[in-house]
Amino acid sequence: QVQLVESGGGVVQPGRSLRLSCAASGFTFSNYAMHWVRQAPGKGLEWVTVISYDGNDKYYADSVKGRFTISRDNSKNTLYLQMNGLRVEDTAVFYCARDREKLVLGDAFDIWGQGTMVTVSS
Amino acid sequence: DIQMTQSPSSLSASVGDRVTITCRASQAINVWLVWYQQKPETAPRPLIYAASSLQSGVPSRFSGSGSGTDFTLTISSLQPEDFATYYCQQYNSYPYTFGQGTKLEIK
């Protein structure tokens, strides 16, 4: 069963750091580009970042550039999002998502995790 | 960045109705558009990719069309489980961007 499971969310003070994880199962993780997408409470969806299947290419939304870092460990079938300098406006559910096609960078998402909540508050 | 504009923002309809949601891109994106359905407290569910291709497992009452800048999602005969929020998203170029959403409510 193809599945993505996020973890690592929680409540953190402004300026602090948090690392999210996304554990993949049921498919060959190393063949797929992976994304993080977030959704603030009661708001729409915002794409955050992507990493290529081999980890060599990464892109970020301007809102997180320089603060967030995406990475992956293909030996552990796990995607990460290191979030530094968190702001109140980063409060959101964070989803990881998989590219639909393998061995490409730049496709629609076909599999999403259930999301993990990040709350930035003093 | 490519801006995606959906209309309407909300829509009331009845079971059995035919419904159309529109998404416009601020610049041409070929057919690189996906439609999602999202219900409260759940992750988005892909419905249509490449503007008109039905995602596996999605009922055939859902269809998509368009290319360039103008796209539509049509639900041919609304079912009770279709009441949700719908989003379009372009994947022509980074940063990927989403429409603001269309909330489909029961009349």
List the helices and strands and how they pair.
The complex is a heterodimer of chains A (122) and B (107).
Chain A: E1 3-7, E2 10-12, E3 18-25, E4 34-39, E5 45-51, E6 58-60, E7 68-73, E8 78-83, E9 92-99, E10 109-112, E11 116-120
Parallel strand pairs in A: 2-11
Antiparallel strand pairs in A: 1-3, 3-8, 4-5, 4-9, 5-6, 7-8, 9-10, 9-11
Chain B: E1 4-7, E2 10-13, E3 19-25, E4 33-38, E5 45-49, E6 53-54, E7 62-67, E8 70-75, E9 85-90, E10 97-98, E11 102-106
Parallel strand pairs in B: 2-11
Antiparallel strand pairs in B: 1-3, 3-8, 4-5, 4-9, 5-6, 7-8, 9-10, 9-11
- Shape field of chain A: globular
Element-level helix/strand string of chain B? EEEEEEEEEEE
- Low-pLDDT parts of chain A are none
Shape, per Cα inertia axes of chain B: globular
> β content of chain B, as a range?
over 45%
Topology of chain A as a string of helices (H) and strands (E): EEEEEEEEEEE
The total of helices of chain B stands at: 0
Average pLDDT score of chain A: 97
Proportion of helical residues of chain A = under 10%
Radius of gyration of chain A: 13 Å
Largest sheet of chain B: 7 strands, mixed
End-to-end Cα distance of chain B, whole Å, is: 36 Å
End-to-end Cα distance of chain A, whole Å, is 40 Å
Biggest sheet layout of chain A: 7 strands, mixed
State the largest interface: A-B, 21 and 25 residues
- Which structural category fits the helices and strands of chain B? mainly beta
Number of helices of chain A: 0
What is the beta-strand fraction of chain A?
over 45%
> Residue share in helices of chain B?
under 10%
Q: Whole-number radius of gyration of chain B?
A: 13 Å
User: Count the strands of chain A?
Assistant: 11
